[in-house]
Amino acid sequence: MKIAIGSDHAGFAYKEPIIELLRQLEHEVFDLGTNSETSTDYPVYAFKVGEAIRDKIADLGILICGTGIGVSIAANKVKGVRAGACQSEFAAKMMREHNDANILCLGSRINTLEEALNFVKIYLQSEYSAGPRHQRRIDIIYKYEEDGKWEK
Ligand code: RB5
């Protein structure tokens, strides 16, 4: 799979080990920065990874900041992105199975590197269940993205 990855300074230390794991698993990786621990702004990397998903350059994305929350808030502003902040194995699995999340967001100040690597593996091994109720809910989001209206 093609996977875009990005982090801010707080997530930078986790980015290389995650890239290494992705390459071991034979994924093609697009590293969209940041490239040091110099303070920077997480929305920049969230938008770069989000746009790689939107533009179909990547199939899935991974974002890392201190909490996984800032990058998820920003990435979800990009059309077609469903980014989920992940702090547990259960969330890593469910965001794929129920929400068809196309970006996994991790928090380096919440989870250890070992936990984060495990979440990446679980997320990639899981599959969207494509059940009609899940698809209906995602379609409600799609419609809202298109015309700012929701209906059930
Ligand atoms: C950076 O200090 C921190 O605020 C950022 O990495 C992230 O946790 C924001 O949600």
The major beta sheet can be summarized as: 5 strands, parallel
Q: Say which molecules are bound, naming each kind only once.
A: D-ribose
Beta-strand fraction estimate: 15-25%
The helix count comes to: 6
Query: If classified by CATH, what would the architecture be?
Result: 3-Layer(aba) Sandwich
First and last CA, distance: 34 Å
Oligomer, anyone?
single chain
Helix content: 40-55%
General description of the model:
The chain has helices spanning 12-24, 42-54, 69-75, 89-97, 113-125, 132-147, and strands at 2-7, 28-31, 60-65, 83-86, 103-107. The protein has 152 residues and is of the alpha/beta class. Strands 2-1-3-5-4 form a five-stranded parallel β-sheet, sandwiched between helices. α1 packs across α5 (113-125), α2 crosses α3 (69-75) and α4 (89-97) runs parallel beside α5 (113-125). The longest helix has 16 residues, at 132-147. The radius of gyration is 15 Å and the shape is globular. The chain binds D-ribose. D-ribose binds at residues 8, 10, 42, 65-67, 69-70.
